[in-house]
Write a structure and sequence with these properties.
The structure is a homodimer of 369-residue chains. The first copy, chain A, has 369 residues and is α+β, with helices and mostly antiparallel strands. The first copy, chain A, is built from 10 helices and 20 strands. Chain A has a 4-stranded mixed beta sheet with strand order 1-2-3-4, covered by helices on one side. In chain A, helix 7 packs antiparallel against helix 8 and helix 9 runs antiparallel to helix 10. The termini of chain A are far apart.
Chain lengths: 369, 369
């Protein structure tokens, strides 16, 4: 599926297409070229040893082979890079090449002015990545087990809190329980499980009404607390993703009704997931429930996304979302956000199958804890 | 210094120029346009509330203002994005605009075919970012304090090990001490300190001879152990960076001599750092020491780099490295890597001043622990 001539230049820490293709993890930029049946890696000299050991590519060259230091001295850093790439393409007899959409425009312009035809294409690798192998699904399950352990540690902590003047009290310290402390408990659980995490959300009250607000400060009784955890296994690099929303005390009827609507929307969306249904149809199922309940305007994001080497990847479960395939791993996470009342989101991680889906999320969905 | 017309579209989690400029942290792509004295942010609708609260831009629009959903349905995701951008530029009367080098070529091509002139420029913001404000230096110091606490926890653990059949033995478990365990101790210290970290290196023996090998498995006596820690403060988003190399037992004379050469190279490089000296001159100082000691070929990376919102940023302390300015925060980290003997790297984090530098690194540099 990859075009016969395909060029990527990036850091594989950020660019998961590049990591997926090469299985070489490097913080600095390196080059991957597919030319016919050949695959070439070009790395900084300091990465040569590791690239030989870790990457799946056998033809590995270094920028030193193309005298990068001389070029740096003579032409400066930007031009040195494009000159090295230009020479490599020339050596390989390549005159036109496909690049991903996000290929840097400066480098594309330089190569074009050297006479190469550069054609941006929608990443064929992103498409490949969206259907997971059995091994990848095992890694995601392993990540999800850690994610659930972390979620359980957070919910258990919140469940054990006391209440004083409307604020949740940490039973350990007898001090108000803050979002930050719950987040630390989550992150320690993840680290002990071999995961790293960034951006964990523990958002209560008004913070929860912004879907990407990470949350800070004291957590309060009667308010919803959105807990969204998306760890990555450090060795295997695969993500998991889940969200639960909980409350202590007696949430208002308005909030409880929102919770039930989200749960219904999620159930409806989960119910239509299977091979051959589009991501947009799954999203429509969630939207339909909200529409009927009079909440449609409070649902301001898509219903889900693929999960793998990126926490957000294909397929898209929203408007324009593509046809689902067996082996997609996706989230189903409808939510409602009311600036006055608060926010609710419930998110499961599922593997798409021919006849439905396998839900990797086992923690219950009770609102009150 | 920013061009009068400047356009960025990216996620500010990955693109620190965008975060620096807007102070709005978002995992999904959003747009920043500077047009004369005006600054415009365009975010997905779900981010509007948070963008209003958190960003420093007052003119905030959403893709919904440009009917993105309609466009998605009619033209698909790729074209919908460029059409929205096109409309915004048109509304603002912009016909030509500068973009950073790494602006996506697909989007540039689409805008060009809509008649806009798109000129990639070396990011002016990256240059701004390289000179830190007093506040930024405080954040980096705070991050470095956590980094040192983590380094100390690792060194203390290694110092307390027993030795059995050439392997370091964890005094707690009486089991062999693995790189992974030391890394967990480091990461727990960092989390408790409000930091996150990715890619921490604890590499012993042959692993240490590859500068980016994270290290795994049992640590051995008489071998060098490279510990490289680069945490980021979760709230403030600023990095620190430091490396120490330690050994237990009786390292070979060859390894000890390498250690001394690295320490000398670092001392020499630190000695020339001040405003008005170039990054290349600092690198040359380190190279000179290695040259004289007959080690030049084993020094396969640059001497250092700027540290801030990115762990690697300007200025570059290597070939082609620019003139240093007061307020640059840089690492000085020469290293030697011999596949047979092992690796040594010593890294300090310093603030460039008019007359020299302020070293933010206080942990000693003894090899044997």
């Amino acid at each position: 599926m990859t075009p016969i001539l395909f060029l990527m230049i990036d850091s594989s820490v950020h660019n998961q297409d590049l990591y997926y293709t090469t299985r070489f993890l490097a913080p600095d930029q390196f080059l991957y070229l597919r030319s016919g049946d050949e695959e070439i890696l070009m790395v900084p000299e300091m990465e040569l040893g590791r690239a030989r050991k870790e990457s799946r590519i056998s033809d590995i060259r270094t920028t030193a082979d193309y005298r990068v230091i001389e070029k740096l001295k003579q032409y400066g850093r930007d031009h040195a890079q494009s000159m090295v790439v230009s020479e490599l393409l020339h050596d390989e007899g390549v005159t036109e090449v496909a690049v991903p959409h996000n290929f840097p425009v400066f480098l594309a312009d330089e190569l074009r002015s050297d006479g190469f035809k550069i054609t941006p294409v929608r990443s064929p690798i992103r498409k490949l990545r969206s259907v997971k192998t059995r091994e990848e699904i095992e890694w995601i399950k392993k990540s999800q087990i850690c994610c659930e352990a972390a979620m359980q540690s957070a919910i258990d902590l919140i469940r054990r809190t006391g209440i004083r003047r409307g604020v949740l009290i940490d039973p350990g310290s007898d001090q108000p329980l803050a979002s930050e402390h719950v987040r630390t408990v989550i992150e320690r659980t993840l680290i002990d499980c071999g995961c790293e995490s960034e951006g964990t959300i523990v958002a209560g009250g008004k913070d929860a009404a912004d879907p990407h607000n990470a949350g800070r400060g004291e957590l309060r009784v009667d308010k919803s607390i959105v807990i969204d955890i998306f760890p990555r296994l450090k060795m295997e690099r695969y993500y998991a993703d889940m969200t639960r929303t909980v409350a202590r005390g007696s949430p208002s009827q308005a909030l409880s009704e929102m919770y039930d609507a989200v749960l219904d929307a999620q159930t409806a969306a989960l119910g239509v997931v299977r091979t051959g249904v589009s991501g947009e149809e799954v999203h429509d199922a969630a939207c339909g429930v909200f529409e009927d309940a009079g909440y449609r305007e409070l649902f301001i994001h898509s219903t889900g996304h693929g999960v793998g080497l990126d926490v957000h990847e294909e397929p898209h479960i929203g408007v324009g979302g593509e046809m689902l395939k067996a082996g997609n791993v996706i989230t189903i996470e409808p939510g409602l956000y009311d600036p006055e009342i608060g926010g609710i989101r419930i998110e499961d991680l599922v593997v798409v199958t021919k006849s439905g889906c396998e839900n990797l999320t086992t923690i219950g969905k009770g609102f009150l804890v």
